[in-house]
Amino acid sequence: MNEVFDVAIIGAGPAGMQAANTAAENGCSVILIEGYAQAGGQYFMRPLGGQNVPPLGDFPILLNALVWGIFRDDDPDWRVALFGLNQPKEIRARNLILANGAFDSPIAFSGWSLPGVMTCGAALTLLKAQRLALGTRALVTGTGPLLLSVATHLIEAGVEVKAICEANRLLPRGISHAFTALGQQQRMKEGAGYLKTILQAGTPYKTGWSILEARGTEQVEEASISKVDSNGRPSGSPQKLMVDLVVSGYGLTPNTGLARMIGCDLEYRSDRGGWVPVRSGEMESSIAGVYVVGDGAGIGGAENSQLEGQVAGVAASVRAGKLSAESAATQIRQINPKLKKQQKFGAMLGDLFSPQAGLISLAKDDTLLCRCEEVTLGEVKQAVLNGAKTLGEVKRLTRCGMGNCQGRMCERSVSAAIVEALASELTDENVGYYKVRPPLHPIPQSVLAE
Amino acid sequence: MKRIENVQRGASLKIFVDGKAVEAFVGETVAAALFAAGVSFFRLSHKHKQPRSLYCGMGVCYECLVTVNGVHAQRACVTLVEDGMKVETCKEVEV
Amino acid sequence: MTQNFDAIVIGAGYIGCSVAYHLCSAGLKTALFDQGGIASGASAANYGNIQIQDMELEKSVELTKLGQTFHAALEDELDWKIGLRKIGGLLPIENETQWEIMRLRREKLNRVGIRSELIPSERLPEVEPYLNPQNLLGALYHPDEGQVDPFQLIWGYIRRARQMGLSEFLQTEVTGLEIKNNRVCGVKTPKGNFGAKNVIVCAGAFTRRLGQSIGRNWDVRHVLGQAMVTERVDFILRNHIASASFFEAGGELKKGEILANLAISQSTHGNILVGEAMYAADHFKTHVPAKSMPAVAACWARYFPTLAKLRVLRSWSAPVADTSDGLPLLGPVSGADGLYVATAFRSTVVITPLVGKTMAQLIATGKSDLNIADFHPERTPHETH
């Protein structure tokens, strides 16, 4: 592909699809790049070939195309390096919209690396898109409305849900958000539907509770749960449940790998899932021509993602010279009130359902924090005792973050463990975050050498 | 784990899991096909040889790695099954 | 209130941490400065090879030979595991020109007592089974080399230095040196000035601009070097390997040109470090250019075709210092008593312990056992860059 596109959008979830549509509607040459086999992201996850995805405009869409690097060097244009069967090696674009979504926040607890322990997102994909009944007896643990959704789908698939443990207490804080909640009719209807299924099944919904430990030899066989205090620390006597599936859903973490790789400035926002790119009101990052939208820029939900995608599509169109500033302002004026409403909703969810800092106490000294390199909490604490003060120093001493996933699964836990160990000196912000370098995903040398 | 019954699926096909023929369907991921075939873990961790299986389900955690048609370290959760595919579990890279 | 120290070390890489440790051991009140964190420049990009492969052969022989002897005792001295292991070094030869260069090199090395052997291509498979001997005339082989884990080595020094009272000012760029009456008296930073009787500049590629801050034209230039690391695999490489093409006269790198030569090492953890690409620039940016990884992978595929399936996990880039005569800057700066430079060492790991000891000796006694006359920081007036 020799063409230089006005805009390349990376990630075809709600934000990316909308950004691509908006930029194309405004006259930009657009290409949408997605690593999975179909567009839709996690939100529209469905059986292959299924419907219920917003329609996409007439522009090239690359599927099964993994972005492993983004380069600019001395060029004015961005070079997006791709890996995948029958894919071009590279796409060039003048502007980028990153819409990489989020992944379930990996919360470490004793036994979390056992087969049969999986995230909420994983369970939902297997239930809704792959149509699999994930076991016979399940524990759902975490925080947030997604727990109700996954419990409902499990029950409908014939799995017995022994308990739903919601780590946060919802009252009295929930009352102050009543008006915000009432303004979201569609979501309230969904939520009511889930609650009905759960109540009819007799599933206990325990607020202020969490998993303590998953146990088993080759896979999960039982779990213990207990009350947790408002910081997320275990506070009551444990109860044992016989389960062969544990679904862990403690909120979402923005997938900021590409933003980090390009060198966008990040800021720490605990109400938006942690480290997020610094952005202007038009979704532009600290690097001109690079926009970041959707959950990949801070957790806000699907409607928020679509609106942000629209804003970035408009802004990129102006930058590409395809849209006048006046027309852009008109479009943005229509989007802004809806965006503000979604931001309020997102703020409510963030206030009610953020995973508490004390959840790090669910990990014991022999619990793995870095699953890839098999580094335990005890080893991280030892590194701190030996003088390590930042995430980078702990990484170099213990090798956490140096495996296949390059720190995605351990950054949160290792940071929390360092902050906990050096409580008087550090916060989540100054402990730092992992730098990201190409390749974004491991790729064989043979592919690079071609 | 078993497939949910009375669901319209893609066309039936055959894959091989550690040498054994197993039924799967167009549109399924290797992970789903493995789970439905009764395979509960996909690999052993390098240092402590612990059994590991799917965790994030979306291709970022790199736990669900299997060898597909001789190519090592493929993420089962984002790889779709194909007719005749050879899947091997618990296999480290061979040089 | 200005803080005052006996010694300030600028640069927290291999050299700076070793120097800081040795100064603390000698009882000096020492402070370590770095614009980043511990080992955030070229040292973090390093393979940890204890090697003589790229050693300059005339004047740095004593430095290198002596340097080699210290690592074995380090683990006990520092009470820290540095992952030391003995491996060989191999320089594959592709053409007659390289063969002749390597032959002369072998003669010189053997004369100064460093074991070195020319191996014809038929014997390569017994020395390095996975190396593709096709298109190779043979290789120069050094059996007595070694390897450490870079982070662990540096940490071993820093941890002990901290225990002995080292003060650290990380994320603190030294923007200038204070000289009064031909004596160094301290350093300037955005966080204020700090006083010191001695200042040792171990700042790698950043040494030049520190010199410029006091009107000196130190002969330190830099290139940006890239490498990458693969997934872990069984221990299949017996040596660290660097193509003899490194030694072919190539002249200066043209701006924008990326040059790749093979430099491979299997780390103490089993991952394979694959490099290197390099390009010349005035900046210090550490992004990885688009062409670097494919260039390095192409080298790798040519030499190790059966290993091309190994997956790359990460790449990096760092500014690496060098001098026009290939010798380091090591010693006092004239006209500025108490100011020293210790930087631009090739194969830095091999001499890290020795340089630390030497600097501590120099500062404490005014003399050093090691003859450093050839490494005077201002031996080559460097007019343009």
Quick overview:
The complex is a heterotrimer of chains A (450), B (95) and C (385). Helix content of chain A is 33%, strand content 22%.
Give a description of the structure:
- The complex is a heterotrimer of chains A (450), B (95) and C (385).
- With 450 residues, chain A is of the alpha/beta class.
- Chain A is 33% helix and 22% strand.
- Chain A has 14 helices and 23 strands.
- Chain A has helices at residues 14-25, 120-129, 146-156, 173-176, 178-182, 185-201, 257-262, 302-319, 325-353, 377-385, 391-398, 411-421, 428-431, 445-449, and strands spanning 4-10, 30-33, 61-62, 66-71, 78-83, 90-98, 102-104, 117-119, 132-133, 137-142, 160-166, 205-207, 209-215, 222-227, 239-242, 245-249, 252-254, 266-269, 274-277, 290-292, 368-370, 375-376, 443-444.
- In chain A, strand 21 (368-370) and strand 22 form a beta hairpin.
- In chain A, helix 2 (120-129) packs parallel to helix 3, helix 3 (146-156) crosses helix 6 (185-201) and helix 10 (377-385) packs across helix 11 (391-398).
- Chain B has 95 residues and is mainly beta.
- Chain B has one domain (12-88): Roll (Ubiquitin-like (UB roll)).
- Chain B contains one helix and eight strands, in the order E-E-E-H-E-E-E-E-E.
- In chain B, the strands form two sheets. A five-stranded mixed β-sheet of chain B has the order 3-2-8-6-7, covered by helices on one side. A two-stranded antiparallel sheet of chain B has the order 4-5.
- The longest helix of chain B is centred in the middle third of the chain and has 7 residues, at 30-36.
- Chain B is globular, with a radius of gyration of 13 Å.
- The termini of chain B are far apart.
- The relative contact order of chain B is 0.25.
- Chain C folds into two domains: 3-63 and 151-219 and 325-375, FAD/NAD(P)-binding domain (3-Layer(bba) Sandwich), CATH 3.50.50.60; 86-145 and 221-322, D-Amino Acid Oxidase, subunit A, domain 2 (D-Amino Acid Oxidase, Chain A, domain 2), CATH 3.30.9.
- Chain C is built from nine helices and 17 strands.
- Chain C has helices spanning 14-25, 61-68, 71-78, 96-111, 124-127, 150-163, 207-212, 292-303, 348-365, and strands at residues 3-10, 30-33, 49-50, 85-93, 117-120, 138-147, 167-169, 176-180, 183-189, 192-201, 221-232, 239-242, 259-266, 271-280, 311-322, 329-332, 339-343.
- The longest helix of chain C has 18 residues, at 348-365.
- Chain C is globular.
- The model of chain C has no long low-confidence stretch (mean pLDDT 92).
- Chain A binds chain B through residues 35-37, 42, 47-49, 103-104, 106, 113-119, 121-123, 125-127, 130-135, 157-158, 218-219, 255, 371-374, 403-405, 408-409, 442, and chain B through 1-4, 7, 9-10, 26-29, 31-32, 35-36, 40-41, 45-48, 50-63, 65, 73, 77-78, 80.
- Strand 9 (132-133) of chain A pairs antiparallel with strand 1 (2-3) of chain B.
